[in-house]
DNA sequence: TCGTTGCGGCTACAGACGTAATCGTAAATT
DNA sequence: AATTTACGATTACGTCTGTAGCCGCAACGA
């Protein structure tokens, strides 16, 4: 199979996503700063973060800008975009593209809080207008 | 030494999931029948299906029962269970465990049909009782 | 100026995944 | 009974992922 033309759209792995979250939170930042933000949590060392960052750069999900002799990293894709793609991927894979069954599923597995219900009701009213 | 018995909970890959879907649809069935159901779609050959089936058996996601000299495969985990786990995994990873933002996201990316809205409204009313 | 250090880049490597061919054996066929 | 066939089991292998070490250069301090 012909290797998909890289570029934005290239799949972002779980570990890479964790790095993206840091960048979405504060950017541009250096590799060291990214590490400060997650190395403890995920029990990673600096080299790991650097590898993930370079893979993200390859995938054109993250861009670099030289700051003096150092590099700062900044996301090239918006979080909302990523989140949208992933959400739709799940809905397609597990629920045949229909959102309602997902909702029912979350309801059944008690993953919906009262606050969620209220918020969703509000959203629904909004959309119905 | 016994590799920690990876009980059910062991991650199911994308390709493996496609096989699970077939089994959830009709089971118990033979490897050949699974292939009949998806090989064309996914452009797989029988060996591929058999490999996926044995990996699923290893992961204790699928069980076998000898039918004569052949084997029939049947899922050991319920679809709803799998779907629930995966849904919650996504909600946790992308939305900090809150379902409302997921809903908002789907709304924003226009992944919600009118039917979805109606169904969800019905579910909400149901849950509010 | 010259060594030290910090950082990006290249290399490494095991385990998971996608995909499939081959092997061994038991059943079906002749 | 011998041959063919049909499976499950074993083996293969390239890619992707997680995790990390080493190398070389540029900047900084002495």
Give a verbal description of the structure.
- The structure is a homodimer of 129-residue chains.
- The first copy, chain A, has 129 residues and is mainly alpha-helical.
- Chain A has 2 domains: 14-75, Winged helix-like DNA-binding domain superfamily/Winged helix DNA-binding domain (Arc Repressor Mutant, subunit A, Orthogonal Bundle), CATH 1.10.10.10; 79-128, Penicillinase repressor fold, CATH 1.10.4040.
- The first copy, chain A, contains 6 helices and 2 strands; from the N terminus they run H-H-H-E-E-H-H-H.
- The first copy, chain A, has helices at 14-25, 31-42, 46-58, 79-95, 99-108, 114-128; strands at 62-67, 70-75.
- In chain A, strands 1-2 form a two-stranded antiparallel ribbon.
- The longest helix of chain A has 17 residues, at 79-95.
- The first copy, chain A, is elongated and about 55 Å long.
- The A-B interface holds A 14, 17, 80, 83-84, 86-88, 90-91, 93-95, 97-100, 102-109, 111-113, 115-117, 119-121, 123-124, 127-128 and B 14, 17, 80, 83-84, 86-88, 90-91, 93-95, 97-100, 102-109, 111-113, 115-117, 119-121, 123-124, 127-128.
- The structure holds a DNA duplex (30 and 30 nucleotides).
What portion of residues of chain A belong to β-strands? 5-15%
- Low-pLDDT residue intervals, each spanning 5 or more residues of chain A: 1-6
Order of strands, main sheet of chain A, comes to: 1-2
Rg of chain A, Å, rounded: 18 Å
CATH homologous superfamily annotation of the largest domain in chain A: Winged helix-like DNA-binding domain superfamily/Winged helix DNA-binding domain
Share in helix of chain A: 55-70%
Structural class of chain A: mainly alpha
Order of helices and strands of chain A: HHHEEHHH
Pair with the most extensive interface?
A-B, 38 and 38 residues
CATH T-level topology of the largest domain in chain A: Arc Repressor Mutant, subunit A
